[in-house]
Specification:
Blueprint lengths: L2 H19 L18 E13 L4 H15 L11 E4 L14 H13 L5 E5 L7 E3 L2 E3 L2 H8 L1 H7 L3 E4 L8 E4 L11 E4 L1 H4 L2 E4 L4 E3 L3 E3 L11 H9 L4 H7 L4 H6 E8 L2 E2 L9 E2 L3 E7 L2 H16 L10 H4 L1 H16 L1 H5 L16 H10 L2 E8 L6 H11 L4
Parallel strand pairs: 1-16, 2-3, 2-9, 3-6, 9-12
Antiparallel strand pairs: 1-15, 4-5, 7-8, 10-11, 12-15, 13-14
Helix pairs in contact: 1-12, 2-3, 3-5, 7-12, 8-14, 10-15
Length: about 400
């Protein structure tokens, strides 16, 4: 049973009983971040390219290239270097449930033009579809990437494919987060990253039924071996903090150069695999060398578009309920480690993200990295209207 189907079944039977105990409110009131908004940190630039609704693939590719080249001069890339592109492949569903194939193709072509040797694209899909254990593998990220349309595009653009589970359980290595950590054990990362000179992260802009959103920071989960994912979901009270800390392992700090998101289509409700796909009149490509600044703008874009989707398409209780998120997380734990682990897992606390400052993942990432970046939003073409730039700037500006 898919997570969405499971939650619909359980939520329908439990909502009425629990709503009276919760005063009729099952998690729709936003609370302040646990430790307040962090102080101001260093400035960071985020570059936006505009993509008109219904634009063809070539237009999307040009926008991705323009935003990426504005964000980085690629001085870090020497001729013959290897680059790993990390997309989001939680399922086999098409973009925006997974990363835009056109965006990935554009990045492969850009890296090749800049002198890269090997360009490898890879991930390991979610536990509903792929499960790796010491002696067993079920499911296939390769088949899911083929279904999503990414695999064909990668190969046509001259890239290689790699799927972490195919290398086996022992092909992962352990790293510790750099920051003071909520992790009890090290994080198991895929061995191929040791062979690569650079990493380019290519997430999507999407809602997530548990975490509230799934942007760049959340994409780190795709690297992790099953036992790391089990601890992540089982010790659920600090899932958001562990998300941020998982991005501070040495490999990512030393090798990740650029974050680029095609957000001309947005998974605006539920997530991570299913939900209402919204296409703004002018979509965005978001690029930055700062993961945190990128995610602040990407979250602001998600929140803005969630406000204007048709009310008939909103998931309502399923989309916002803390009850649904708690049940959903225990369901994931059961899939990762069995019912015993699920029964004794911590209770997950979902955030009602109505502003950038409500996102515990982002706020903790700022806290452990020196503060909230001063985000400078820079359009790279005339397709990004000045009023949109101003709105996103106001949304990501540190509160007084």
């Amino acid at each position: 049973m898919k997570r969405r189907d499971f939650l619909r079944l359980m939520a329908g039977s439990a909502a009425a009983a629990l709503s009276s105990c919760a005063g009729g409110n099952l998690g729709t009131t936003a609370g302040a971040p646990a430790h307040g908004v962090p102080a101001r940190g260093r400035d960071a630039a985020v570059f936006l390219a505009g993509v008109s609704r219904g634009a063809d693939e070539e237009t999307v590719r040009r926008a991705v290239r323009a935003a990426a080249e504005a964000a980085s001069d690629f001085s870090w890339l020497s001729r013959g270097d290897s680059v790993f592109i990390k997309p989001v492949l939680n399922s086999g569903n098409p973009y925006p449930a997974t990363t835009s194939p056109a965006a990935i193709a554009a990045m492969i072509e850009l890296l090749r033009d800049r002198g890269a040797g090997r360009v490898v694209v890879g991930d390991m899909s979610g536990i509903e579809h792929v499960k790796l254990s010491p002696g067993k593998l079920s499911g296939s990220s390769r088949r899911l990437m083929e279904a999503s349309g990414i695999a064909r595009t990668v190969l046509a653009a001259g890239g290689e494919l790699h799927f972490f589970e195919e290398a086996g359980w022992d092909a992962f290595y352990e790293e510790a987060p750099a920051a003071a950590s909520h992790w009890k054990t090290g994080i198991m990362m895929p061995g191929i990253l040791k062979q690569m000179d650079h990493i380019v992260l290519m997430p999507r802009c999407a809602r997530h039924v548990l975490a509230g959103s799934t942007l760049g920071l959340k994409a780190a989960v795709g690297y992790w071996r099953t036992d790391t994912r089990l601890e992540y979901h089982r010790e659920a009270s600090t899932l958001q903090e562990k998300t941020a800390e998982g991005n501070t392992v040495e490999t990512l700090r030393a090798k990740q150069r650029l974050v680029v998101t095609a957000a001309d289509r947005i998974l605006a409700t539920f997530g991570p695999d299913d939900g209402y796909v919204f296409e703004p009149e002018t979509g965005l490509v978001i690029a930055s060398t700062s993961l945190i600044a990128h995610d602040m703008v990407s979250l602001a874009w998600l929140l803005e578009n969630r406000q204007v989707i048709p009310s008939s398409e909103k998931d309502g209780f399923m989309d916002t309920s803390r009850l649904v998120a708690r049940m959903g997380n225990r369901y994931v734990v059961s899939m990762l480690g069995g019912m015993g682990q699920a029964l004794f897992s911590e209770t997950f606390a979902k955030d009602d993200i109505r502003a950038v400052w409500d996102d515990r993942v982002l706020m903790h990432a700022c806290r452990i990295s020196g503060g909230v970046p001063g985000v400078a939003i820079e359009p790279v073409d005339g397709n990004v209207q000045d009023d949109l730039r101003k709105r996103l700037t106001e949304t990501t500006a540190l509160p007084a």
